[in-house]
Amino acid sequence: MDEIFIRILTRTGQYALMIMLFLYLFIRGLLPQIPPITDFSWYIDKNEVKEGLVDIRLAPDLKSYDELIAWTARKYNVDCALVKAVIKAESNFDHKAVSRKGAKGLMQLMPQTASLLRVNDCFRPEDNIDGGIRHLSYLISLYDGDLALALAAYNAGENAVARYRGIPPYADTRAYVRRVLHNYKRYKQEATAVMVTVK
Q: How far apart, in whole angstroms, are the C-alpha atoms of residue 145 and residue 117?
């Protein structure tokens, strides 16, 4: 019995020593770096933090749809950076995203809107992006290029914009417009930086 008790004490002491060593290395910053995750990464969107919305999600590869977005945006004469900003705000580039109201896919198309746009599969990136950009293009044209109004209508609907004769006084919609425009500027700057680097 005494021998078993001594073994338990010895084992407990070893665990305590290991924990103490780990804490010492952690505090001193001597622990090895964890290898980066290739397909997904935890992140905090600093732009949304400024809006008071800390966004900590398991994010997909944000570059995976770049070619598709660029091609479709050119097709309908819409700025690629704006489309990326809308997708970022709508679904965070998750093609399987579904909102509480039933909006689906990358550009979060409502069933009625998807039907009008003849989008058969909202979860198919090609179909969703094509329909979403067509809808966005229509709104930009409707509001004579006023992006803030177009984005407000994309988020809250044309009727809400008409009712209030401008951006509706909904906190979510106003935050949405600010967030998209902020990210639009950021994506444009990134695209410009890439072009300069290539030259």
A: 21
Q: What is the pLDDT of residues 51-90, one digit of tens each?
A: 444 344 444 556 789 999 999 999 999 999 999 999 999 9
* Contact call for residues 167 and 180 (beta carbons, < 8 A): no
Query: Do 5 and 67 reside in the same domain of the chain?
Result: no
Q: How do beta strands 41-44 and 56-59 pair?
A: antiparallel
Cβ pair 42, 58 in contact under 8 A: yes
User: Maximum distance among all alpha carbons in the chain?
Assistant: 88
Point out the catalytic residue in the list 3, 51, 67, 90.
Answer: 90
Q: Are residues 85 and 178 in the same domain?
A: yes
Rounded Cα gap, residues 100 and 182, in angstroms = 25
In sequence order, what are the beta bridge partners of 43? 57
Q: What three-state secondary structure class fits 31?
A: coil
The count of domains in the chain is 2
**Domain residue limits at 185:** 41-198
Q: Is 67 an annotated catalytic residue?
A: no
Query: Are 161 and 118 part of one and the same domain?
Result: yes
Between CA 181 and CA 73 the distance in angstroms is: 17
Q: What are phi and psi of 98, to 5 degrees?
A: -135, 125
Specify whether 100 is located in the same domain as 194: yes
| Whether the predicted model's global pTM rises above the 0.85 cut | no
